[in-house]
Design a protein that fits this description.
With about 425 residues, this protein is α+β, with helices and mostly antiparallel strands. The protein is built from 14 helices and 12 strands. It is about 30% helix and about 15% strand. This is Glycogen synthase kinase-3 beta isoform X2. Belongs to the protein kinase superfamily. CMGC Ser/Thr protein kinase family. GSK-3 subfamily.
Length: about 425
Amino acid sequence: MLKSLRIKMGQPHSKTHKYTRCGRRINNVKLTGKDGNKVTTVVATPGVGPDRPQEVSYTDTKVIGNGSFGVVYQAKLCDSGDLVAIKKVLQDKRFKNRELQIMRKLEHVNIVKLRFFFYSSGEKKDEVYLNLVLEFVPETVYRVARQYSKHKQTIPILYIKLYMYQLFRSLAYIHSQGVCHRDIKPQNLLLDPESGVLKLCDFGSAKVLVRGEPNVSYICSRYYRAPELIFGATDYTSQIDVWSAGCVLAELLLGQPIFPGDSGVDQLVEIIKVLGTPSREQIREMNPNYQEFKFPQIKAHPWTKVFRPRTPPEAINLVSRLLEYTPGARISPLEACAHNFFDELRDPNCRLPNGRELPPLFNYTPQELAIQPSLNAILVPAHVRQQQQESPAAPAVSPPQQNDTSSTPGAEATPPGAAATGGSA
């Protein structure tokens, strides 16, 4: 009774046991197993689906990342042997955690999966941590690109196509859900180097944008910040993610960031060097309240001279369609997927350089195909449509259900005392 009450109240509930091997408990005490590895058992709630708390045991825990947000651990689930990443963040009791709320409504092949979440106590009194148990993906676009850069090479163009296509597909999906990521950069693009699958991660800055509701302008990492953010806009749209994706594409083609700079002014200068000085109308489109127009008049630099001579013209064209001053002039993520830069991926004979087949790129759900139906004939290649017609009809993938927290003990996604809203930033 006491245990179920603690769960229902949202109190941290975890324990560490001695195991001779994963799955066997002895005496519910904190000891060490024969292999020297500690096993931790927590009561966690599944990330997607019904709120049915369950015991989850994991072992082999080690730190793989940290920052202002908290700490990320790698661990192994005892029941399946699957590797997971556990993101541990300090929870403000006044608010629900926005990252958790957003991740629970997302389910897509190119978005890192939230498997479970649970709360734990901190060292200080009344300190509560939220732990997000995520699928583990071993690499990032950032690390892969850095390896090529160290050897004075650029990523093979097929890989650039593969990675960017999946990024745009993930953006199309989250934007259709009203979610803006607000921190697109190579470090947040996870990669499975064997299969070529890319997954978007880190929704710590993400927000459901509501027209008329102000947002903070100092968002997104330097090098990838859209110009309207640098101009201080607070009514921006999800097109800031499209700009960031354009910066990532340009960086993969160049082998270095296209708009480096240690400050907003520095970044704006770098943007102006390429795009030229924005017109008054373009500045109005980025931020109607911006009055400090004091930039020298500089002409746009030809895109063909920005990139190396052998850069495919369709790649340069796509970059130019993404990196537009006017947010509304940037193409949408799905329009980017349909761009002819990605035509090679739609070739039925296309293979990865290691000889393996491409990962699933065209398994669009009905939900995705409803975003811009006029593009569907391009997005789903003829050979894929033929395969779908010849094979038995697969069940349509329905969107994740809204979580019903009204009747299940332990279902509350908010720590004790948390308010119902997470602020407006």
